[in-house]
Every structure is written in structure tokens, then in C-alpha cells.
Amino acid sequence: MQSDLCRKINAIDGCECMLDPFETGKAWFMYSKLERDFLDTASYVALDIAHSKVWSERFGELLTRTGDLVDSSFRLMITSKSLDGESIVQTLRAKMATEQNKNANWFPDIRDFGETFDPIFQLSSLEVEAGYGLTSYGKLHPFMDFNKQSPSWWKPYNKVKHEIFEEMENEATLENSINALAAFFILNILHKESQRYLVRKTDVIVTEFLQRRYIEQSLNASFIGSPNNMQAFEFVARTALFTHVFRVDPDPKKRVDSFLI
Length: 261
Fold this sequence. Notes:
Elements: H1 2-11, H2 26-40, H3 57-77, H4 87-102, H5 110-121, E1 128-132, E2 135-140, H6 154-162, H7 164-171, H8 174-190, H9 192-201, E3 205-206, H10 212-219, E4 225-227, E5 236-238, E6 242-245, E7 247-249, H11 257-260
Parallel strand pairs: 4-7
Antiparallel strand pairs: 1-2, 1-6, 3-5, 5-6
Helix pairs in contact: 2-3, 2-8, 3-6, 3-8, 6-7, 8-9, 9-10
């Protein structure tokens, strides 16, 4: 069933289900391009909280591109091998199979994603620090209250995507675009297929005094961060724009070990 779901999910993009875009680094490539494009705007609008309501056509473009990728990422995560053992994911897979038997065009929405993935990754409580050059935007919580409602930037993303002329001045803002980008950053650094790629192939996820294989083994023990027996080490994900210090998991389950064998 998983391969059937994967084919259906990818059919909307006209591609076959082959290698996982997270595992191969394609998702991170798309994120990196978005971050570079976002940082280009800092030449004209300083990355400062005082400018959070500044709007532009460029922020609108970035918001819609990023929102589309977050949506696609969640859809891909439904079929991820690292989540095979999660009953809540199995429930969504079953729901998707049932609904698509009745309507081939049915796909989960943001409410389904929140109900499924927030309990696993605890996205609602996740914090990211944003800053670039001489300015700091401060702390972001791009999935705040995701267990109760859609993220604050999600409705603006849909409004800009479908009503660009009417909503550009209200919703195509620095605030919405940076929060959407932070959400995509989070999915890349926490989702195990992407996390493994980042540890092995990049310097995005690091900690002092530990080699890559030990970083991978440590993070593999938890879906939210590092295990409580590794509190002496600070695991950090960092790009030119964002910094996230991984949370310490007080009750790591090592639920994803089989994925990495």
C-alpha cells in the first residue's frame, strides 16, 4: 500500500515514485535555493522585526513557493520509511487509501498534517533563531499551536496563492515569508531521511567533539532532538539565516533505528 500511496502523491507533479527527495538531498537543495532568494531581499529590506509588515511582490513569490514545498513535504512524509512504525501515520495512510477509493483527487490537508506530525515531532513547541548580517529578526515559532490550528502563515500563503491582487498588500509580508521558510527549514532538519543526508553530506547539523557517525547515531534516538544521555553535547542546525538548537528528549524511543540499518 505504501508504494501505491507514494505513486498517488507524486502523480500530481507528474513524476514516478523512486528515490526519496529528502534522502537524496533534493528537498534540501530546494530549501537552500529559497533561502538564497530570501536573503537577496535583505539588500533592500533589513531583516528586522520592525519591518515584519513590509510587503512586496517578491515576498509574495517566496511565500507561495515555500508554502507549496511545505505542503509537498508533508505529503511525502506520509510514506516515509522512518515513520512506518508510527501508528498515527498508519492511520493517515489508511484514511488516505479509503478517501482516494471514493475520490482519486482527495489529499490530506493542513489539519491532517497537524494531527499526524505534531505529536511525533512536537512541532508546536519548536523554536528557530533568525538573523543575517548586521541584523537579527529574533525567535520564530513557525508551527505554534499546530496541534490546534494551522500555522499563522498558512492562510496568508493560500490567500496570496489564490488571490494575489487582492491580498498582496495584506499578506505578502516579510513576517509571513520568513515564518514559512522557517517551517520548511524545520521539516528538513527533523525529518529522519533529510537529517541523515544533512549529517552525512553537509555541515548544517553539527556538535563539537563528535564525528558525523556519532551525531547521526545520537539524533537517531529521537524524533524531536537529542537523547537525554547526550546532554553534555549541544546539537545545532545552522544556515546563513536560521539557527536551531536541538531539544533534549527526556524519553527517547529509538523508534527509527531499523530505518538506518
